[in-house]
Amino acid sequence: MMAKAKALIPDNGRAGADEGNRQAWIGQEVLRREDRRLLTGTATFAGDLGVPGQLHMRIVRSTQAHARIVSIDATEAEKTPGVRMVITSEHTRHLGSVLLEELGYHEIYENIEDFSHPVLAVDKVLYVGQPVVAVLAVDPYLAEDAAELVSIEYEPLPVLLDPEEALTGKVELFPGRGNEGARIKKAYGDIDRAFAEAEHVIRHKYVTNRHSGVPMEPRAVVVQPDPARDTLFIWGTVHVHDNRRIIAKMLNLPEVNVRMKHVEIGGSFGVKGGVFPENVVAAWAARTLGVPIKWTEDRVEHMTSTSHAREMVHKLELALDAEGRILGMKDEIFHNHGAYFRQAEPLVSDITAGIVFGPYRVPAYDATLHAVFTNKTPVGAYRAPGRYESTFARERIFDLACEEIGLSKTEFRRRNLLTAEDLPWTPGLDIVHEPYHFDSGDVVKHFNEALEAANFSEWLEESKRLRADGRKVGVGLGVLMDKAGLGLFETGGVEVSRAGRVTVKTGGSSVGQGIETVLAQIVAEELQIAPENIDIVHSDTELIPDGVGSWSSRSTVLAGGAARKAALAVVEKARRLASEMLEVDPDDLELTAGSFKVKGTDQQISLYEIAAARDPFTARADNDEPGLAADAVYMNNAMNYPYGVTLVQIELDPDTGGHRILRFSTSTEAGRVINPLTTRGQIIGAAVQGIGGALYEEFLYEEDGQPITTSFMDYLLPSAQEMPNVDCFVTEDAKSPDNPFGAKGLGEIGIIAAGAAIASAIDDAIADGVHTDRLPVTPEQIFSRCQGLNKAER
């Protein structure tokens, strides 16, 4: 853990308590079961796998940001001993481009696949790092050496990097189709009237530059073919069911012939979630040659080729009345998708346009988002996609409004945040085809409680005293709202074994977020069996026929909902069988400690004994299904909307431009906390990434499109030394009505408003009248402002 956390999570008298004779596992601080294998080094990652006879794949990547491919000469590479094959687009052209996920956008944008990523570059390249050639050899080092012998001649073309210029410039990346893959419009209310009647109109432009998840383990994939059955076994992908569907379709195989197998992922944060060209090449090569293929990228490849994220421009306009109440909001957004659409895009663009207004009472809203292409690495989802960027823009223009109107930052929020009386808040737009429906909570109440819990007034007084002593100390805040639980359904299954174990199967995936622990707690509560006796199986399409996966803070609600539903079905079957075996009425039975007990007696039978009694012969004789198991699909037609506030106190060093975060607090209304430990872990991890995006991380490019931050020497990350203690304030006052737990997603809470709060605190510390409108904030910028070197810009 990179930072300590002060947790203020109420247990409401339930954590670890018995409810009658029932043990309440939900709410307990159960240690994460994933940590033992991860921390002891016994976990198996795709990079650890070795299949006899495997070939190693090395990708030859474009060195040009935009160029025609004149020629490819692989003669020397093919001559190298140990090289089995050199693959170019001549081999993979028939596969087309990597198919985008079917999320309803194909019906809206008929030509959306025109902008998807080629498997290997055909005729031209659109970004540095794009796969052009694949080399297969018996040894990974030999494959790398041979790849360097491949000679590619390019004819450079004009380079386009700026997202706004993509709509107006002369460079056309997709001739005849332009540089805009989608234009998304979201609107409600009378926006013209709002601005016509406004006492104050504020306009400003905000920019969030490129970040990414940079997980510990880069991408890796192993493909083992079974030529006799024309079947592929694949390890290393995150969302196994989506990957199976797309790879099978591209290779013209039945889905059952593509079998995704479980392996540790080593972190994803969204950036490793899609189907990548390298995966398709490896699968095609394994099937074509009939031998296993292994591919592992190095860190430079990861920095130039794995999905980037962020890079948005928001041109915000705010209409206010004389008292500082919001009348309307406009936003024109330019989302730089890089060279192609990837994964589930334009999903992130859609989310962004639909959530800019956050948890505020905004009577009229109008947003237009341009999903544009440039000669940069394609982007995908990365923790709080669209929310981090839009929250930065919204909260910053609110700070600007406070200066113009003369209100404090806290009072402006209080006047405009939604209250319980405003709910349900259904302004009349959708996010990813699901209606926006905020129906539980009181944002103002939570806001006030969070400020009080953090003793925010003391922060303000302390910062004022320190500034009077000549220190550059400032305080900032940002209000956040997330949308969680996206994706309609999830699958689950529960099986009780005669061996004294319970197996839970889930369509979700474990990427470090603690899903295995949380699902074990949920099922433990329904079966009244200790979580340590429950095993979680995921990311294996042979065992779990269908599923959606883990993204968009959906695992607890959707995967948990499916597991709970299956567990309840198991309990009902077990109750029926127990009543027959004990010859009592089902209503006379109570489930406690994993056994059905006849009320008022010592007579009982365990779930394990019931499972053993349902052997195939006995069950068939009774015209019953053998075993004690059930599968379930959990449907959820509404998202949930966690909200909260992030508070920051920062000190700046005017002589170096350095910074130190003195205090960091973030809060959320969780609905219901399943495990306080995993909740704190999620909030802290997200906060680390939020701080990184605000002060350290940025993918930079030269004018010719060459990336210049391709290692951790240049792409900076916050370390444990730079991290402050993270205070977490979590309330459980507004249970979500759309799921049986009342829970709300928490995986992205700590990151969403971090950029906005840090920028606000920096401006407060320097107090030079300059308004921070771009992330990240660099030491050079802080130094210049502290030294008064930017006075001419004001």
Q: How far apart, in Å, are the first and last alpha carbons?
A: 41 Å
- Please describe the biggest sheet, giving its number of strands, its sense, and whether it closes into a barrel: 7 strands, mixed
Strand order of the largest sheet: 6-8-4-15-12-13-14
Number of continuous helical runs: 23
Radius of gyration, in angstroms, nearest whole number: 28 Å
What's the helical proportion of residues?
Answer: 25-40%
Unreliable residue runs: 1-7, 10-19
Q: How many individual β-strands?
A: 32
Q: Can you tell me the overall shape?
A: globular
Structural class: alpha+beta
Q: Whole-number average pLDDT? A: 93
Beta-strand content: 15-25%
What's the structural blueprint in terms of helices and strands?
Layout: E1 5-8, E2 18-19, E3 22-23, H1 34-39, E4 55-61, E5 67-73, H2 75-79, E6 83-87, H3 89-92, H4 105-108, E7 124-125, E8 131-137, H5 140-147, E9 151-156, H6 165-168, E10 180-188, H7 191-196, E11 200-211, E12 220-226, E13 231-235, H8 240-250, E14 258-261, H9 277-289, E15 293-296, H10 299-305, E16 309-320, E17 326-336, H11 347-355, E18 365-372, H12 387-405, H13 409-416, E19 430-431, E20 434-435, H14 443-454, H15 456-468, E21 472-481, E22 489-496, E23 502-506, H16 515-527, E24 534-538, H17 555-582, E25 589-592, E26 595-598, E27 604-606, H18 607-613, H19 616-621, E28 628-635, E29 643-653, E30 658-669, H20 676-695, E31 726-731, H21 749-752, H22 754-766, E32 774-775, H23 779-786
Parallel strand pairs: 1-31, 4-15, 11-32, 13-14, 17-18, 23-24, 30-31
Antiparallel strand pairs: 2-3, 4-8, 5-7, 5-9, 6-8, 10-18, 11-16, 12-13, 12-15, 16-17, 19-20, 21-29, 22-23, 22-28, 25-26, 26-27, 29-30
